[in-house]
Amino acid sequence: MKLHMRNPRIPLHVLHPDAINRVVAPGYHGKSHVIISLVQDYRHGAKTANSLLMPIGFSVYKTKNPVRDEKRSLSKLSLLGEVTSYNDNREISTRFDLSPGSYFIVPYCLSDNHSGQFLVRVLAEKDPVAGKTGCVVS
């Protein structure tokens, strides 16, 4: 956790759950099915691209007050899940079933003292409305 405490926190706000679907188990009713993907950016051309990839990961934290918790230690927030690739994959993704509320997505590199550019994609059944401060899933 100390490795990525200073990494950016990307806010994600889930406003409404998905519509009730008879196929979905009742335990998932009232939640929004969200796919979060982290993609490494490389701009040095296709020949050297694979050698520039680093092991990456991201964590998802639940927050009650995103403005106040922006500077708060990650150990004080509720960790919902963590996705890590120990290989040099360009993209990692997973699905979360999130209740309405506010969350932080925290991307990180597993290598010490390495910074890089990345793209975070959030896919949901509802249309997400992107803002300057993050993602809103309505």
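Above is the first protein from milestone M3; the second protein from the same milestone is given next.
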Amino acid sequence: MRSCARVSCRPSTRPGALVTSSSWQAPGEGSEFEPEVVDQFKRAFYDQLAGGPNSPVMIADVEGRGRAIVARHNITKGQLITAEKPFVSYLSERVETHGAAHPPKPTRCDHCMRGLPPAAAKAAQHNNPAGLLLARYHEAICELGKEVREMEIHCSKDKRKFPLLAMRTMARILLNFRDTGSLDATWVPLQVLGFAKQKPELWTQDYDVFKRCFIHNEDQADFFSYEWYCRMMQIFYINSVSVTMDSTQQNVGAGLYILSSFYNHSCVPNTRSSYPENNTWHVYASKPIEAGQEIFISYVDHMKSNKTVETRRQHLYNHYGFWCECPRCRLELDLARREQGPA
């Protein structure tokens, strides 16, 4: 999405020592790193994120829009451009369709959002511990069933997903750190994403619940601080997307996709999005795209929307912080001005 965040390329090896108010500055900005080193790191990181030289896309700077996804070579109509699994995701069916006190038993996996095999679903529905482990939580969070339920109930009242995504982000960071002793695969990618500037009062209440449920020692309190939590909320606000399964056309959850967050918006995108089986986000070319050309998605469902150009642009500004200047908006604004006549 629209991106403006900074990147830190040398995280601490101790989770509790990383997140402070100053940890969001790029190396080279008040650190020992030279700007050339920062640029080299960014180029290498973006190239790896985009899939390397064999990928049809790359991340590049585009004048007036910052970082963007552009075609590395010619792309044909209908060609698969990217297929990305989420960094984190969360299933919304249970907490959105039932009362908070009695969330329904799972029939889909909260992480991959596939329908569960009958045996796993049955085990989960009968509260079989092994079945619940398999069916509901694929990461370290699976060990925190009671605490997870408390957070789900807290969020179900207003149908909010972002605190649940923060919960799964914490689980992924802890699990990866436990397995590798490094934060490179989980913390660095988050720092390159754009973020909103909002910090509502509601986040303080959410963090109190989050801290009570999931913070169990001083190192965790240092790393997963209120500042960390707010930054996650700011990232999710701009970069998370709803997952709509192709087979049912139902919204089944939300996810955060690192690479796909670099797609910029157009009301006349040259792609179409699809979730054919689970929460893997497939982006296909809807028209031929030449090498070097920017690749766009739409942040709004322009096919179903009957909003005027003014309300559509206002929606994009309110949610993503920019006024759309795509060809469709410019044309419709010009037509609207002509219809209004001289001032």
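Note on the second protein: The chain has two domains: 1-299, 308-343.
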